[in-house]
């Protein structure tokens, strides 16, 4: 599985590509940070981010795109910019038929460090160690994009198993309810005719 990790942001947008191997083995294939100037028109900033993401999608052809979900931030303006940047990338992936998964910051931190409240330094240190990198990825947005891709590589199999189990449980429930309905119908029919229900 080739996962494109996205740490969305208007000023700095982290992009990464990670490939999963056997077990929990993951390999970093590429990482970059797209920067847009704060004094540029919003629409133009989003266009620059979208064009960079589209280039990545067409060049690297990921299996899935993992984007950080905007959970909560004190600065509403920053949260809006983050959501808009993530949205244009999700749209670019959807247009190419590439599935998009969203992970909250705490899910990413928990997957990579084992602690959902880890700070950026801890995330960067663990990403560097997990990927066997000689140097820590800089800036933090690059490390965060790699962490998102790693998180998805490790969480996706579990999420798929959970979805399969939920589907199996739903099918079993539907079969049980159908059987119950048939039994009730048989009892009602037997009561009308005076026969013993089978």
TrEMBL record:
Q: Which GO terms describe its molecular function?
A: hydrolase activity
Query: What is this enzyme's catalytic activity, as reactions?
Result: Endonucleolytic cleavage at a junction such as a reciprocal single-stranded crossover between two homologous DNA duplexes (Holliday junction)
Top enzyme class: hydrolase
Q: Does the keyword Repressor apply?
A: no
Coiled-coil parts of chain: 162-193
Q: Which UniProt keywords apply?
A: Coiled coil, Cytoplasm, DNA damage, DNA recombination, DNA repair, DNA-binding, Endonuclease, Hydrolase, Magnesium, Metal-binding, Nuclease
Localization per Swiss-Prot or TrEMBL: Cytoplasm
Positions contributing to Mg(2+) 1 binding: 7, 141
Q: Which InterPro entries match?
A: RNaseH-like_sf, RNaseH_sf, X-over_junc_endoDNase_Mg_BS, X-over_junc_endoDNase_RuvC
Q: Where is the active site?
A: 7, 68, 141
| Chief place of localization | cytoplasm
Keyword Oxidoreductase carried by entry: no
Cofactor (UniProt): Mg(2+)
Which HAMAP family does the protein's record reference? RuvC
Assembly and interaction partners: Homodimer which binds Holliday junction (HJ) DNA. The HJ becomes 2-fold symmetrical on binding to RuvC with unstacked arms; it has a different conformation from HJ DNA in complex with RuvA. In the full resolvosome a probable DNA-RuvA(4)-RuvB(12)-RuvC(2) complex forms which resolves the HJ.
Q: Which PANTHER family match?
A: CROSSOVER JUNCTION ENDODEOXYRIBONUCLEASE RUVC (PTHR30194)
Describe the family membership recorded for this protein in Swiss-Prot or TrEMBL: Belongs to the RuvC family.
Function of the protein: The RuvA-RuvB-RuvC complex processes Holliday junction (HJ) DNA during genetic recombination and DNA repair. Endonuclease that resolves HJ intermediates. Cleaves cruciform DNA by making single-stranded nicks across the HJ at symmetrical positions within the homologous arms, yielding a 5'-phosphate and a 3'-hydroxyl group; requires a central core of homology in the junction. The consensus cleavage sequence is 5'-(A/T)TT(C/G)-3'. Cleavage occurs on the 3'-side of the TT dinucleotide at the point of strand exchange.
Please give the name of this protein.
Answer: Crossover junction endodeoxyribonuclease RuvC
> What organism is the protein native to?
Rhodococcoides corynebacterioides
